[in-house]
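Need C-alpha cells for this chain, all 374 residues.
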Amino acid sequence: MTKTASRILAGLIVSSAMASPAMAQSSGDIIPDSYICVFNAKAVNKGAVVSEAKRAANAAGRQVGHVYTSTIRGFSTHMNAKAVAQMQARNPSIKYCEADRVIALGPVRIAKGKPGGGSSAPAQTTPWGIDRVNGGAAGSYATAWVIDSGIDGSHPDLNVDANRSASFLPRDSSWDDQNGHGTHVAGTIAALDNAIGVIGVAPGAPVVAVRVLDRRGSGSYSGVIAGVDYVGANGKAGDVANMSLGGPTDTALNEAVIAAASKGVRFTLAAGNESDNAANHSPASANGANVYTVSAFAQGDTWASFSNYGNPPIDYAEPGVSITSTYKDEGYATLSGTSMAAPHLAGILLLGSVRSGGTVSGDPAGPADTIGIH
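Here are the C-alpha cells for all 374 residues:
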C-alpha cells in the first residue's frame, strides 16, 4: 500500500500515512478464553443477575467480568471453551454463551486542525454537514451518550457531563479520550455556539462519555455491551446514544441495544465502512423501536463509496465525508466515515423530529436512502 492509499476501518476512513504498526488483533477477532453469557430472562430476574453470575462462574473456578442487568441479563467471564460448555450444562438458566470479540477502529486521524497545548482556537465555522441537516439552532437539549473512545473533558467547545461519564475498559477508569474519535463524534452532535472552532447540530447539548475503546481505538464486545447496559440504566426517554463503532454480527450486542432503546433512549448506529450490507455487522444490524442505522454521503448528496448499505437495516443517510469537528487535546480534525454520519442524526433527534431532505442514490442493495434533516 502506498502512502497515498487509504484503508477502510470500522467507523471511518483513514489515510495509510497516519497508520501505526499493525495491531495484534483486528475488529471481529475472537478474544481467546473470553465469553459473554446471557441468562434466560424468565429464569433470572434483574435483582438476581449478579449473584447468579457469580455462582455460575465460581462453579467453573472462574470470576465474573462485566455484569449486565439493565438490557440483557448476563455476564462476561474468562474461561476456556470446555469450561464454558460444562458451566452451561450445569446451569439451565443460561440461555447461551458466545465468544467475546475485539472491536477496533484502527488509527483515526486524516487531518488535524489546531493542536492542543496553548495556541488559540480558530474562529468558529459551520461544517458543511451541519448546514445540510439544518442544524445549529439554539435550544435546551436532552443528553447525548457517546459510546466510543471517551471525550476530551477539557475541550472548550464541548459541554461534557463529567459526573455521568464512565469507562468500561479493564484497568483504566479514566473516561477521557486518548484517541480522538469520541471527541469528534461529540462535537458533531453538540459543539457549542461560542465563536470558536465549530458548531454542532444541537449546540451545547450535554455529552456523556461512555468509554469502551482505548487509545488505539480498540475494545471488546463485552465492554461495549457494558457501556450499552450503563446507558440502559441511566439514560432517559428523549436522550440519544451514538455508537460509531462496529464489527461482525453479534446476538448479545444487538439484543442489548434493542433493549436499551425500548426504554426511550434513541440509538444512532454507524452503518460501517466495508462497502458491504449493514445486515452483516453489529450493532448496525440491530432493528427495533428507537434504533436508527445511518449510511454516509458526501457534499452534493453523493453516495460515499465506502459506506455499508441495505435498507433495512439502514434508516437514514447523513453527511460523512470530510467532516470537521472537535478532537482530543482541545483540537479539531477532519475525518470521513459512517462514524461521522451517525452523530449528525443523533443531533437531529435532539432537535426534534426527523424529516426528509431528499435522497442519496447509489445504495447497491435497495432504494435510495433518505437524507434525514431537521
